[in-house]
Amino acid sequence: MRKLLLCVMATVFLSAASFAAPKAEVFGGFQYTHFDGGPNAGGWNAALTGNFNSWLGIRADFSGAYPTGFDYYTYTFGPEISAHLPMVKPFAHVLLGGGRISSGFANLNGFNMMIGGGADVGHGTFAWRVAQFDWMSQRFNGVSDNKNIRITTGIVARF
């Protein structure tokens, strides 16, 4: 009986360890951004997530979108919660930071906030971020714009 109990405990422990979160994740991919009342833009998105445990991490997110006439860059940071399931990792985050609008003759810096989440599919070192949806709020020169959406997809490397 004692050996059976020991085998069951070892199996449970090893099973739990197999679903443990990686220490870090690096993401790179394509983003599509819809600006409120304005243009749609394609661009890039990159992120680095450091995981504290199996459900909580901290993310640094950087992106660039290129609508006609100006460039829009974001740099945001914040907590991320996730569930590391066998083949799918759903996640949600709140990211705060800055944004920069650059045109040929002027640059504006302001506040940027993103609330969203998504899902990664894959097991092992590489996964596919099927979709990440973010609601973006931005504030430049005292003017807030709260109806912006960013959709992202790409590859995740886990370490």
List keywords for this structure.
mainly beta, 8 strands, elongated
How would you summarize this macromolecular structure in one to three sentences?
With 159 residues, the protein is mainly beta. The chain has one helix spanning 2-18, and strands at residues 24-34, 40-51, 56-65, 71-82, 88-102, 107-121, 126-140, 143-158.
Characterize the structure shown.
The structure is a single chain. The protein is mainly beta. It has one domain (22-158): Porin, CATH 2.40.160.20. Helix content is 11%, strand content 67%. Strands 1-2-3-4-5-6-7-8 form an eight-stranded antiparallel beta barrel. Mean pLDDT is 90; it is low at 10-18.
What is the number of E strands?
8
CATH hierarchy, class: Mainly Beta
**Name given to the CATH architecture:** Beta Barrel
CATH topology: Porin
Uncertain segments are 10-18
How much is the average pLDDT? 90
What's the structural blueprint in terms of helices and strands?
Layout: H1 2-18, E1 24-34, E2 40-51, E3 56-65, E4 71-82, E5 88-102, E6 107-121, E7 126-140, E8 143-158
Antiparallel strand pairs: 1-2, 1-8, 2-3, 3-4, 4-5, 5-6, 6-7, 7-8
